[in-house]
Amino acid sequence: VRVSGDRSYRFALAQQSVPRRFASRKHRTVMANNCTGHLPYSKEALAEVGTIEQVFYGTGVAFTAVVLLLYLEEVIFLCRTYTSAPRRTKLLLILAIYPVIAVTCMTTLLAPRTTLINEFALNIFLAVGVYQLPLLVTDYLGGEAGMVKTMSDIPVALNMPPCCCLVCIPRRTLTRRLLRKMKLFVLQGIFVRPLFTYISAVMYGDDRHMPGVASAPVYLLSAVFLMLSFLLSLYGLMFFVRSADPYVPQAMLRGKMVCVILPLVLVTVQKNLIVALSNNGVATCIPPFTSVSRGNVLYAYVLIVEMVLLSFLARALYRRPDVPFPPPVVSADKAVQCVFPERRLKAKSLPSVTEEIEPLSENIIFYMMM
Length: 370
Hints:
disordered C terminus; mainly alpha; 70% helix; globular; disordered N terminus
């Protein structure tokens, strides 16, 4: 079949080994620009779906449904089991990380041009969910005042990952100022991650940036700042968990921290690896997906599969009855005020009972001497 068109179109068709069904006038515009880096629309992405794409879409929808059902069951369990509303809210926000990532990645698979919008929503909720872990640790120890009072006797270590090599960092006594600084290390992710994703979305709308292109200056700048934000968040999380774990071992804080850090690592580090591979030609340009958009699709699908596995791990660690932790230390004055008047009267009547017991003890001694 001879296809009419200019030389560039026929050259692109010959170089990419495109099937004949793409050589119609309907797909001529797409074929001319299929390797220019533009992300396809949902109609273009779903128009020519092969067997491999059908498997990806079908399993992606199934995995996303599994993650949503697991989260729904966890919500029902926590609402029925936990009486403390603040602690229950923190747990629900942490467990919501996995369904949010799965839903946004599934949307990226179905509509590739919404990649930056989905990344913006993902980074906002991921940063909010990660920040709930320090708040949960503080809640386990009775708030900031209780945590400082409990841990102020032993100086805490500051040379922990990613600064574990700096052995010269001295230990410090935990104060409220140090505690708030560590919270800020985790809190900064709520502002830094969405900010650079928003800048990338604005540049993409102005046709100055393409998601997944490693050579773009916006991508390089955002990658550097997101990596620094990730390291600061990691340092803050490690401080809270390693410092508080000896005091509340029944909370299994190390396992809970792994469930929170792994999504952060996968979203930050894994994306850079897949982008580097797609820019080096590992992902081939086959219509209607470019090499860049195919790398984004692969990244989204891998994240969905990983969220299923992490959902089961988080379910085993977070879906547990509320363990009663040791209450905060109460002073003697407050303890006396908590005694009811009836109990005080019973306490005063104890000497009269001992007076009746004394003659009996004398008789026992007398019989033993005989």
